[in-house]
Amino acid sequence: MDIVQKLQSVGKKCTKERLKIFSFLEKRHITSSSDVVNTFAWDVWRASVFRTLNLFVDSWIIRKVQRVEKWDFYELNDEEHHHEHMQCSSCNELLCFDSVKICKQLMDIAKQKGFTVSQHSINIVGKCETCT
Q1: What is the mean pLDDT for each group of 10 consecutive residues in the chain (132 residues)?
Q2: Percent helix, percent strand, percent coil in the chain, to nearest 5
Q3: Are 59 and 5 spatial neighbours (Cβ–Cβ below 8 Å)?
Q4: Structural domains of the chain in order of their starting residue, each with its CATH number
Q5: Is the pTM higher than 0.85?
Q6: Is 24 helix (H, G, I), strand (E, B) or coil?
Q7: 22 closest CA partner among 1, 43, 45
């Protein structure tokens, strides 16, 4: 993903701080807002980290992943490897699953209803095989 081009497409600049945060997120599958804040505690203001995360979500650079924990979690929005998540409410294990068929059905339904989808996520909470 070309972060500079993506930010420019929404009328934003790619600042040094935004580039650092993006590079950090790019190296992880799912990252908590706490991890991002702690990583840049001496380098980027806390408020700037949260503003950047919100900008990235609004710009569809990253997506928020719903988790049981109190912190927000994020992952890069990668349309080539799009997937969804299941989280065990007992052990917090996070399982990923391919969602091509489900997403196609959702897009078809949205189209039938005249609805334009800008983003979506499916997060299933339950119990994994080990905790059942």
Answers
A1: 89 93 91 90 88 92 76 78 83 84 91 88 87 88
A2: 40, 20, 40
A3: no
A4: 1-77 (1.10.10.10), 82-132 (3.30.1490.190)
A5: no
A6: helix
A7: 1
